[in-house]
Specification:
The structure is a single chain. The protein is built from no helices and 10 strands. It is an all-beta fold. It has a domain of about 80 residues: Jelly Rolls (Sandwich), CATH 2.60.120.10. The strands form 3 sheets. Strands 1-2-9-4-7 form a 5-stranded antiparallel β-sheet, with no helix packed on it. Strands 6-5-8 form a 3-stranded antiparallel β-sheet, with no helix packed on it.
Length: about 120
């Protein structure tokens, strides 16, 4: 078996870097770190979002379903389906999100406009 030549490949996610975003012709890829104090308000997107859990734990509500996601899990939020998330525990959650189809150029860029800081526990 011959080894693959990866000289033309470029790293997308740097180990110690912050969030990253790449726009391809038909989709976008968004690498994000959600702090342990983060959640989102209920929202929808015109595109399908496929989220790959890399680290941490998150609670997801998608439509009428609830999911507890850990590293290796995949979460799918179909287009126009209300959903929200909350980071669980004291560790940040790193995710990789595939957005398809790609959004219009004026809407492209890192996601996160729906992310909020969770209120302090009472």
């Amino acid at each position: 078996m011959t080894e693959s030549d990866t000289t033309e490949y470029h790293p997308f996610i740097a180990i110690e870097e912050g969030d990253e975003h790449i726009i391809l012709e038909d989709c976008e890829i968004d690498a994000r770190t959600h702090g342990p104090d983060k959640a989102s308000e209920p929202h929808t997107h015109d595109e399908t979002h496929i989220i790959f859990m890399r680290t941490g734990e998150m609670h997801w509500e998608i439509g009428d379903e609830e999911y507890h996601a850990t590293p290796g899990d995949t979460i799918v939020t179909p287009a126009n389906t209300e959903h929200k998330f909350e980071v669980v525990g004291d560790e940040p959650s790193k995710t990789l999100c595939l957005i398809a189809p790609a959004r219009s150029p004026e809407d492209q860029g890192p996601s996160g406009g729906h992310e909020i800081t969770k209120p302090d526990e009472v």
